[in-house]
Amino acid sequence: MDPERECSRLWRAWRTVHEMGYEISEEEVDISLDDFRRHFCDSEGRPQRKNLTFKANPSEKMLKQHAAPPGQPANVGTIWVEFSPEPNIGIKHMRTFAHTIVTENYHTGIFVCQHNPTAAAMKIVPTVLPSIIEVFEEADLLVNITKHELVPSHHLLSRDEKKKLLERYRLKETQLPRIQSADPVARYMGLKRGMVVKIVRKSETSGRYASYRLCM
Protein backbone atom coordinates (compact mmCIF):
# COMPACT_ATOMS: atom_id res chain seq x y z
CA MET A 1 0.00 0.00 0.00
CA ASP A 2 1.15 3.52 -0.74
CA PRO A 3 2.77 4.98 2.44
CA GLU A 4 0.67 8.15 2.32
CA ARG A 5 -2.57 6.19 2.06
CA GLU A 6 -1.45 3.75 4.77
CA CYS A 7 -0.58 6.64 7.09
CA SER A 8 -3.97 8.28 6.53
CA ARG A 9 -5.81 5.00 7.24
CA LEU A 10 -3.86 4.38 10.47
CA TRP A 11 -4.42 7.97 11.60
CA ARG A 12 -8.18 7.54 11.18
CA ALA A 13 -8.18 4.20 13.03
CA TRP A 14 -6.02 5.68 15.80
CA ARG A 15 -8.46 8.55 16.33
CA THR A 16 -11.46 6.22 16.37
CA VAL A 17 -9.96 4.09 19.15
CA HIS A 18 -9.15 7.24 21.12
CA GLU A 19 -12.84 8.23 20.98
CA MET A 20 -14.05 5.18 22.89
CA GLY A 21 -14.61 7.19 26.07
CA TYR A 22 -11.46 6.62 28.10
CA GLU A 23 -9.44 9.31 29.87
CA ILE A 24 -7.32 10.61 27.01
CA SER A 25 -6.04 14.12 26.43
CA GLU A 26 -7.66 16.25 23.74
CA GLU A 27 -4.26 16.55 22.06
CA GLU A 28 -4.20 12.81 21.45
CA VAL A 29 -7.81 12.60 20.31
CA ASP A 30 -7.54 15.58 17.98
CA ILE A 31 -4.06 14.85 16.63
CA SER A 32 -3.65 16.15 13.09
CA LEU A 33 -2.49 13.97 10.22
CA ASP A 34 0.75 15.96 10.01
CA ASP A 35 1.47 15.48 13.72
CA PHE A 36 0.61 11.79 13.47
CA ARG A 37 3.02 11.44 10.58
CA ARG A 38 5.81 13.18 12.51
CA HIS A 39 5.32 11.05 15.63
CA PHE A 40 4.58 7.63 14.20
CA CYS A 41 6.00 7.35 10.67
CA ASP A 42 9.52 6.56 9.52
CA SER A 43 11.62 8.65 7.16
CA GLU A 44 9.72 7.20 4.20
CA GLY A 45 6.36 8.18 5.69
CA ARG A 46 5.34 4.62 6.53
CA PRO A 47 3.56 4.25 9.91
CA GLN A 48 5.28 2.19 12.61
CA ARG A 49 2.45 0.23 14.18
CA LYS A 50 4.56 -0.99 17.09
CA ASN A 51 4.73 2.62 18.32
CA LEU A 52 0.95 3.09 18.37
CA THR A 53 0.38 1.11 21.59
CA PHE A 54 -1.14 2.95 24.55
CA LYS A 55 -3.05 2.42 27.77
CA ALA A 56 -5.85 4.46 29.31
CA ASN A 57 -8.19 4.48 32.29
CA PRO A 58 -11.98 4.65 32.03
CA SER A 59 -13.59 8.07 32.43
CA GLU A 60 -15.97 8.81 35.30
CA LYS A 61 -18.87 8.60 32.85
CA MET A 62 -17.78 5.12 31.76
CA LEU A 63 -17.39 3.95 35.36
CA LYS A 64 -20.95 5.06 36.11
CA GLN A 65 -22.51 3.61 32.96
CA HIS A 66 -20.64 0.30 33.15
CA ALA A 67 -20.96 -0.21 36.91
CA ALA A 68 -21.51 -3.90 37.72
CA PRO A 69 -23.91 -5.21 40.37
CA PRO A 70 -22.37 -5.73 43.84
CA GLY A 71 -20.25 -8.85 44.03
CA GLN A 72 -19.75 -9.12 40.27
CA PRO A 73 -16.53 -8.38 38.33
CA ALA A 74 -16.10 -4.85 37.03
CA ASN A 75 -17.40 -4.25 33.50
CA VAL A 76 -14.72 -1.70 32.69
CA GLY A 77 -11.16 -0.90 33.73
CA THR A 78 -7.70 -0.01 32.41
CA ILE A 79 -7.38 -0.67 28.70
CA TRP A 80 -4.35 -1.65 26.61
CA VAL A 81 -4.44 -0.97 22.87
CA GLU A 82 -2.03 -2.52 20.41
CA PHE A 83 -1.77 -2.14 16.64
CA SER A 84 -0.14 -5.27 15.30
CA PRO A 85 2.63 -4.77 12.72
CA GLU A 86 2.10 -8.33 11.50
CA PRO A 87 0.01 -8.68 8.32
CA ASN A 88 -1.35 -12.04 9.47
CA ILE A 89 -2.24 -12.99 13.05
CA GLY A 90 -1.86 -16.57 14.19
CA ILE A 91 -1.81 -18.41 17.51
CA LYS A 92 1.66 -17.15 18.46
CA HIS A 93 0.74 -13.49 18.04
CA MET A 94 -2.53 -13.84 19.94
CA ARG A 95 -0.85 -15.70 22.80
CA THR A 96 1.74 -12.94 23.10
CA PHE A 97 -0.97 -10.28 23.24
CA ALA A 98 -3.02 -12.29 25.76
CA HIS A 99 0.10 -12.75 27.91
CA THR A 100 0.56 -8.96 28.05
CA ILE A 101 -3.04 -8.41 29.11
CA VAL A 102 -2.91 -11.03 31.86
CA THR A 103 0.56 -10.31 33.29
CA GLU A 104 0.05 -6.54 33.32
CA ASN A 105 -3.42 -7.00 34.85
CA TYR A 106 -5.29 -4.97 32.24
CA HIS A 107 -9.07 -5.22 32.32
CA THR A 108 -9.44 -4.98 28.54
CA GLY A 109 -7.10 -5.42 25.61
CA ILE A 110 -7.90 -4.11 22.14
CA PHE A 111 -5.93 -5.81 19.40
CA VAL A 112 -6.08 -3.90 16.12
CA CYS A 113 -5.06 -6.10 13.21
CA GLN A 114 -4.50 -5.52 9.52
CA HIS A 115 -6.59 -8.60 8.74
CA ASN A 116 -8.77 -10.95 10.78
CA PRO A 117 -6.78 -13.44 12.91
CA THR A 118 -7.02 -17.15 12.13
CA ALA A 119 -9.85 -19.14 13.67
CA ALA A 120 -7.32 -20.97 15.85
CA ALA A 121 -5.94 -17.67 17.16
CA MET A 122 -9.43 -16.41 18.02
CA LYS A 123 -10.00 -19.46 20.25
CA ILE A 124 -7.49 -17.94 22.68
CA VAL A 125 -9.64 -14.82 23.23
CA PRO A 126 -12.20 -16.36 25.64
CA THR A 127 -9.47 -18.06 27.71
CA VAL A 128 -8.08 -14.87 29.29
CA LEU A 129 -10.92 -14.33 31.79
CA PRO A 130 -11.51 -12.23 33.81
CA SER A 131 -9.73 -9.94 31.36
CA ILE A 132 -11.40 -9.14 28.03
CA ILE A 133 -9.88 -9.10 24.56
CA GLU A 134 -11.56 -7.31 21.68
CA VAL A 135 -10.20 -7.73 18.15
CA PHE A 136 -10.79 -5.15 15.43
CA GLU A 137 -9.62 -4.96 11.86
CA GLU A 138 -8.08 -1.62 10.93
CA ALA A 139 -10.77 -1.26 8.25
CA ASP A 140 -13.48 -1.47 10.95
CA LEU A 141 -12.08 1.63 12.65
CA LEU A 142 -11.66 3.97 9.70
CA VAL A 143 -14.96 5.60 10.70
CA ASN A 144 -16.32 5.97 14.22
CA ILE A 145 -19.56 4.09 13.70
CA THR A 146 -21.28 5.89 16.59
CA LYS A 147 -20.84 9.17 14.70
CA HIS A 148 -21.98 7.93 11.30
CA GLU A 149 -24.95 9.90 9.94
CA LEU A 150 -26.88 6.70 9.17
CA VAL A 151 -26.44 5.25 12.68
CA PRO A 152 -28.91 6.47 15.32
CA SER A 153 -27.63 7.81 18.62
CA HIS A 154 -26.86 5.10 21.19
CA HIS A 155 -26.70 5.81 24.95
CA LEU A 156 -25.75 3.17 27.48
CA LEU A 157 -27.98 3.20 30.55
CA SER A 158 -26.41 2.92 33.97
CA ARG A 159 -27.61 0.15 36.30
CA ASP A 160 -29.90 2.64 38.13
CA GLU A 161 -31.28 4.00 34.85
CA LYS A 162 -32.01 0.48 33.66
CA LYS A 163 -33.84 -0.29 36.91
CA LYS A 164 -35.98 2.85 36.61
CA LEU A 165 -36.81 2.05 32.99
CA LEU A 166 -38.04 -1.44 33.84
CA GLU A 167 -40.07 -0.14 36.80
CA ARG A 168 -41.63 2.67 34.76
CA TYR A 169 -42.93 0.34 32.07
CA ARG A 170 -43.42 -2.65 34.38
CA LEU A 171 -41.20 -4.84 32.26
CA LYS A 172 -38.82 -7.69 32.77
CA GLU A 173 -35.53 -7.13 31.01
CA THR A 174 -36.18 -10.18 28.81
CA GLN A 175 -39.19 -8.36 27.35
CA LEU A 176 -36.96 -5.71 25.79
CA PRO A 177 -35.87 -5.97 22.15
CA ARG A 178 -32.34 -7.28 21.85
CA ILE A 179 -29.01 -6.15 20.50
CA GLN A 180 -26.32 -8.76 19.99
CA SER A 181 -22.92 -8.22 21.63
CA ALA A 182 -21.39 -8.83 18.18
CA ASP A 183 -23.26 -5.84 16.72
CA PRO A 184 -20.70 -3.26 15.46
CA VAL A 185 -22.02 -0.50 17.73
CA ALA A 186 -22.20 -2.86 20.71
CA ARG A 187 -18.60 -3.91 20.16
CA TYR A 188 -17.41 -0.31 19.88
CA MET A 189 -19.27 0.71 23.04
CA GLY A 190 -18.08 -2.35 24.95
CA LEU A 191 -21.60 -3.56 25.75
CA LYS A 192 -21.86 -6.63 27.96
CA ARG A 193 -24.67 -9.12 28.42
CA GLY A 194 -27.52 -7.60 30.45
CA MET A 195 -26.72 -3.97 29.62
CA VAL A 196 -29.46 -1.79 28.12
CA VAL A 197 -28.85 0.82 25.45
CA LYS A 198 -31.18 3.69 24.57
CA ILE A 199 -31.42 4.29 20.82
CA VAL A 200 -32.70 7.67 19.66
CA ARG A 201 -33.93 7.96 16.08
CA LYS A 202 -35.30 10.83 14.05
CA SER A 203 -38.98 10.76 13.14
CA GLU A 204 -40.83 12.82 10.54
CA THR A 205 -43.93 12.92 12.76
CA SER A 206 -42.62 13.23 16.32
CA GLY A 207 -39.15 14.68 15.76
CA ARG A 208 -37.33 12.02 17.79
CA TYR A 209 -38.29 8.78 19.45
CA ALA A 210 -36.41 6.42 21.72
CA SER A 211 -36.29 2.65 21.92
CA TYR A 212 -34.37 0.37 24.27
CA ARG A 213 -32.45 -2.81 23.61
CA LEU A 214 -30.99 -5.44 25.89
CA CYS A 215 -27.51 -6.69 25.08
CA MET A 216 -27.31 -10.45 24.65
From TrEMBL:
It is found in: Nucleus. One of its GO terms (cellular component) is DNA-directed RNA polymerase complex. The keyword Nuclease does not apply. Its main location: nucleus. Residues 4-100 form the RNA polymerase Rpb5 N-terminal domain. InterPro entries: Arch_Rpo5/euc_Rpb5, RNA_pol_Rpb5_N, RNA_pol_Rpb5_N_sf, RNA_pol_subH/Rpb5_C, RPB5-like_sf. Pfam families: RNA_pol_Rpb5_C, RNA_pol_Rpb5_N. Residues 143-215 form the RNA polymerase subunit H/Rpb5 C-terminal domain. Keywords: DNA-directed RNA polymerase, Nucleus, Transcription. It comes from the Eukaryota. Belongs to the archaeal Rpo5/eukaryotic RPB5 RNA polymerase subunit family. This is DNA-directed RNA polymerases I, II, and III subunit RPABC1. It comes from Discina gigas. The gene is RPB5.
